Each structure stands twice: as C-alpha cells, then as structure tokens.
Amino acid sequence: MPALVLLGAQWGDEGKGKATDLLGGSVDYVVRYQGGNNAGHTVVVGDQKYALHLLPSGILSPGCTPVIGNGVVVDPSVLLSELSGLNERGVDTSKLLISGNAHIITPYNVTVDKVTERFLGKRKIGTTGRGIGPTYADKINRVGIRVQDLYDESILTQKVEAALDVKNQMLTKLYNRRAIAVGQVVEELLDYADKLAPYVADTVLVLNQALEQDKVVLFEGGQGTLLDIDHGTYPFVTSSNPTAGGACTGAGVGPTKISRVIGILKAYTTRVGAGPFPTELFDEDGEALRRIGGERGVTTGRDRRCGWFDAVIARYATRVNGLTDFFLTKLDVLTGWEQIPVCVAYEIDGRRVEELPYSQTDFHHAKPVYEMLPGWNEDISKAKSFSDLPKNAQAYVKALEEMSGAPISAIGVGPGRTETIEINSFL
Ligand code: GDP
Ligand code: IMO
Ligand code: MG
C-alpha cells in the first residue's frame, strides 16, 4: 500500500503543491523524482504562502522527510537560497536528503538553454530558461556532472573539461559568445560541496528500506503529463518524465511498490510556453479564467494561457499514468458562469476523434467539440463535503469524472490547505 505517486494530469500548474502539502502530514517521505527548478509549486498554509521550486512540498510538514531523487536536476545556488529562505521563515529543512546521483545544473547549462532559445527565434519552446533541457542532454550524452562529483576535485575537473570542450566551440563559433573557463566553473561548484554535504545520501537505499518497513512514501511530480518528453506534446515539452513511470526511474523504486497514482486535474486548462492547446481561449472568458484563477507562472511570472476543460487530455492522462484517482482543483474559479463548455472530443479534418491523436499534425489540427454544462453562482469556497456543493457543481464534477476515466477523490475549492473536499481517502 505505502507508495503513492501524485502528478500533473495536464500541462503543469494543476495544484500539485497544494495536494502534496495536504497529504504531507500523513506521509513519511515526499520525493521529487524529475525536473528541477523549472517547477513552481505553491503551498498556502494559513496566511503564509510558499513558492517551492526544487524542494518537495513535504518540506513544510514537520514529520515528513523530503527527498530529491536521482532523476532530478539540481541547481545548487537555487537549492541553497530556497533552503535559507525557508529557514528565515522558521521552517526546519534539516531532514532533507539529496541523491548523490542527481545531476547538477551548471552555469553553462543555463547559458546554453538561453542562447538556444534565442537562436530558435519564433520556433522557440518557451522554456523557463533554468538550464533544464541542456542538463538532461548532458546526462544522456554521458557528460553530465552529478552531485557526488563535487566530492572529488580531480574527477570534477575532468568532467567539466569534457563537457565544456564541445560547448565552448558551440558558444564561440556558433552563438558568438565568450568561452566559459573550466577553472571558474570548478571553483564555483566546489564552493557548494561543503554546504550540500549534510544532505547527500544514498536515497535509493533509504527509500527502499523505508518501504520495506511499511513507511508511506509520496512521489511528487513536477510539470505534467502533456509536458512529458515521451508522452507529451513533443517538442513543446520539458526534458524529463513527469508521468508515473518516471517515479520508478527517478527514485529507484520498482513499479510493484506503487499502489496508487493520483492525477492532479484543474477544472479548466492552462499552459505556459509554446505548443498546441486545443481549448485555448483568446476572448474575455480566457481573460476571466486568468484573472479569477490567478493564472500567472510561479517560476517565470509569465501569464498562463487559459482554456476550458479538455476531457480528451484527462482520458489520456488516465491511460498513460494508470491513474487510480483524480484530485480536481480550482472548481471555485468556475463559479459565476451561466454555462461551462467542456471539450468531449476533437474534430480533426472533418472527423470526430475521441482519443488524443498520436500524430503531431493531427493534434495541431484538433478543434474542440464542446458540450455545455450548466453553471452555478453560489460561493463554494466553504464547502466541506460533496453534498455542500450546488447541484450544478456536483453535476459538473460527476460529468468530468465519467469522461476522464478515474474517480475524483478530492476537490479543491480554494488555495488553502483546508479548502478541500475529501471524497475518498488517499491513505
Ligand atoms: P503546481 O505547479 O501544480 O503546484 O501549481 P501552481 O502552484 O503553479 O499553480 C496552482 C495555483 O492554484 C496556486 O496559486 C495555488 O495556490 C492555487 N490553487 C491550488 N488549488 C486551488 C483551488 O482548489 N482553488 C483555488 N482558487 N486555487 C487553488
Ligand atoms: P510545475 O511543476 C508549467 C514548461 C515551460 C516550457 C516547457 C519546457 O510548476 O507544474 P523547461 O524549462 O522545462 O525546459 O521548459 O515546459 N514548463 C512548465 N509549465 N508548469 C511547470 O512546472 C513547468 N515546467 C516547465 O513553460 O513550455
Ligand atoms: Mg507550477
């Protein structure tokens, strides 16, 4: 029973931070398994608001051990400033564990991310500019720097040399930038070694031993299903696997250990950055969703693109992740519409299509087929149980559940920890 995965079912920003924090009080470990500080997870506790980028949201629950798994890419300067920011606010971060096998986002990875995007011009991905893609590229190219390399200066120097060999050619000859000095990078990285040392651990062993002892482990995804490098809207994706399988590779835990996979699903849809988005709105409804939902990026401050709920995507998320439950968030944002359109299928070149097309060309041509559901005007932010919701809000949730293929086990009616309707227990 003890291992649960919690992940984004759409294009990220579904409310994973809030959902993780809600469960944090009842679990022993919360583990980030992929991505890096491209994530921006908001947690609201009482009148305090926290924006977490690299740290698992479980860091705010005193009984919980937060873990950064091997599949994460770590920018040490961001990590250290996030830790000191929390310490200043009285949060104890001493339990944090970081995998020695996690890869490091080096300053040159950040540079390469930015210059590559600039070079792509109007074909750019709209990355967060945090060096995520280039760091994963180095990992796959076998020229990456890992956390454990910080503790062997000779190996670190050789690896930075190998990585910069090609990159400096590229930076100077192709992008017209200055070469990056090996010594400077090594010096900066060595400076982090002592500061990170208390946290570095064999997290694979720790987590598997915890599971053997029946401890509860929650894997917290960054980004979302449609941003997955394999299963998302490639190439407009991130460079890791937010989908459920990523929890196994990104933490070193076997699939047989995972008992529950919870998809976080916004009651409408948002996306940041470039790429196809069939239900995107360009009218005052889109503007209203952005305003009422506070849809502005936690990491980059960019306005999020907004649109109606897309059941085709939700069904796809159920399939590729093997979802057992949904946590539907931000239902309160939809209060006040007379009718709420929900995309139930696509029309692609004159054909009705019920499932997400695997062909990129088809997806780019997909037009939403909408069904209109009746809206509600009552304030739902104080609702504590499903029956507290107005009838039309109940019907909206039930319709989404039927279309999406997994039970909706919790509903968010506000950003706060307690503004949640729990239907089925997750633990
Ligand atoms: P994440 O990246 O998936 O953790 O999501 P973000 O934190 O980037 O964006 C979700 C935003 O919605 C945050 O500002 C949350 O505080 C907020 N939020 C989460 N759940 C709810 C909810 O049920 N209702 C409302 N109104 N806001 C919510
Ligand atoms: P959370 O965890 C929304 C998007 C970027 C860009 C693409 C690639 O808060 O849900 P990257 O920097 O990862 O190479 O950018 O992915 N993206 C996110 N969008 N929420 C996120 O994280 C995101 N992390 C990356 O906007 O389109
Ligand atoms: Mg976010």
TrEMBL record:
The keyword Nucleotide-binding applies. Substrate binds at V298, T299, T300, G301, R302, D303, R304. The gene is purA. Mg(2+) binds at D13, G40. One of its GO terms (molecular function) is adenylosuccinate synthase activity. It is found in: Cytoplasm. IMP binds at D13, E14, G15, K16, N38, A39, G40, H41, T128, R142, Q223, T238, R302. Signal peptide: none annotated. It is an enzyme of class 6 (ligase). It catalyses: IMP + L-aspartate + GTP = N(6)-(1,2-dicarboxyethyl)-AMP + GDP + phosphate + 2 H(+). It comes from the Bacteria. The active site is at D13, H41, K139. InterPro entries: Adenylosuccin_syn_GTP-bd, Adenylosuccin_syn_Lys_AS, Adenylosuccinate_synth_dom1, Adenylosuccinate_synth_dom2, Adenylosuccinate_synth_dom3, Adenylosuccinate_synthetase, P-loop_NTPase. Homodimer. Keywords: Cytoplasm, GTP-binding, Ligase, Magnesium, Metal-binding, Nucleotide-binding, Purine biosynthesis. GTP binds at residues 12-18, 40-42, 304, 330-332, 412-414. HAMAP family: Adenylosucc_synth (MF_00011). The keyword Cell wall biogenesis/degradation does not apply. Plays an important role in the de novo pathway of purine nucleotide biosynthesis. Catalyzes the first committed step in the biosynthesis of AMP from IMP. Belongs to the adenylosuccinate synthetase family. It comes from Streptomyces althioticus subsp. attaecolombicae. Its cofactor is Mg(2+). The lineage of its organism: Bacteria, Bacillati, Actinomycetota, Actinomycetes, Kitasatosporales. Binds 1 Mg(2+) ion per subunit. Its EC number is 6.3.4.4. Pathway: Purine metabolism; AMP biosynthesis via de novo pathway; AMP from IMP: step 1/2. This is Adenylosuccinate synthetase. Its main location: cytoplasm.
